[in-house]
Structure formats: C-alpha cells, structure tokens
Amino acid sequence: MKSVVVFGLGRFGKRLALSLSKAGADVMAVDKDEEIVASVAPEVTYAAVADLSNADAISGLGISNMDIAVVAVTSDFAAAILAVVISKEMGIPYVIAKASSERMGVILKRTGADKVIYPEAEMGERTARILVSNGLLDYFDIDDDLCIVEMKPKKEWIGKTLKQLDLRGKYHINVAAVRSHNEMRSSIDPNRPLKENSDLLIVTERENLKDLTRSIK
Questions:
Q1: Alpha helix segments (H runs only) across the chain
Q2: What letter does residue 44 receive in the DSSP assignment?
C-alpha cells in the first residue's frame, strides 16, 4: 500500500488522513495545531506538528520517501504553495493540492502540483455516485485511478466468508476494513462470515467500480 503525507488537518484533510489509514495506507498527518494532531495520532502511522509556512519545518519532516503528498491547506495560500514546492523538491512523485477557487488551482498547478482538487465541487459527483447505487454508503477518490468505497454487503454475500467470496478475484477489489457496531476493524478474519449489519471499506481502481455497482441490487 502507498505512503501518503497529508498537510493540513482541517475537515477535509483530517477525514482523508483517517480514511487512508483505515484503508491500510501508511499515513503521515501534519498540521500546526497541536490539539488536532494529537486527536489523529492514534489513528495514523505518524502525526507531526509543523508550521507549514516554514520551509525548514516541512523539509525536516523526512518526507522524501513518500509516494503521495496531499496539500489540504486553503486558509494559508502561501503555506499551500510552499508545501507543494518542497514536496516536489524532496522527490515525492505525486502531489495533490486542494484549491478553494479556480485561480488558486491554476497557481498551485504552476508551482508543481500534479493534480488539483476542488472538494466542494466534486462533492456533487460523489453524492451522485452514492445516489445511483443503493449499496454505496460513501465514496472517496484517492487519486485519478484509486478510490475508497464504503458499502453494505450484497444479500448473497451475507453468511459467507471473504475467502469463499473471492471478491478480489471476481471484482478486483480489496476489503481493507469491516465496520460492525460502529467500530471499524482493519484486522479481518477471512474465515468469518459477513453479517447483514456489517459495512465494508473497499479499496479499488475506479474502472472496477462499474462492475461492482452494476451488480448491487
């Protein structure tokens, strides 16, 4: 699984960091607010307090081996630009930046961001995906190809084990965690039958999502 550093733990950044961690990614979560960092620390691989407007503070995090950087800072434009620039300078191959406006997105792209996202605008697409399928509870893009889906098990899956279902072979999906009684568990017993009240957290490529949702009734 990929390693991801998330700069900025506002509503979007925090949720992304926790979702990626639950999906099995190695996550470094970074913010200047000590209280917010402390709140996510038990759920991610590493959490750090850093002033993102300080180049030395970002460079000192040791992020050169990360696969992906997500810059989720929109309240401090200068800090967002700095995080993008340093992430690229340190060799992170794929940098995603959150933008609150098209103009901000253009500038972030010019400073080195490989992809710019507009969460508020993309919320419509996400909501549409959920509405058109009765089985999807939540949907979240990780990058252009990979996404996280939370869904109820299909009726024919209930009572069967993940080993029996072979979801990876049939749908090319990976079950990263199972939620039961409002508790998400990443340590999954492949021989334990799925229950009706279980929610599955799935990591898959977007191209595989059509086959999965088409089969959900």
A1: 11-22, 34-40, 55-59, 77-89, 102-110, 119-132, 162-165, 167-171, 206-214
A2: S
pLDDT digits (tens, 9 = 90+) for 60-92: 999 999 999 999 997 888 899 999 999 999 999
CA–CA distances in Å: residue 163 to residues 159, 178, 189: 12, 14, 9
Beta bridge partners of 146: 205
Q: Is the CA virtual torsion 102, 69, 32, 21 positive or negative?
A: positive
The residue written with tokens 């800090």 in the block is 79
**Nearest in space to 154 (alpha carbons), one of 110, 115, 209, 195:** 195
CATH superfamily of 3-117: NAD(P)-binding Rossmann-like Domain (3.40.50.720)
Per-residue pLDDT of 131-160, as tens digits, reads 445 567 777 766 667 778 888 888 889 999
Cα distances (Å, whole numbers) of residue 14 to 17, 112, 196: 5, 23, 29
Span 123-214: which CATH code? 3.30.70.1450
151 neighbors 176 (Cβ within 8 angstroms): no
Sequence spans of domains, the chain: 3-117, 123-214
Q: How many helices (DSSP H) and strands (DSSP E) are in the chain?
A: 9, 11
Predicted TM-score (pTM) of the model is 0.61
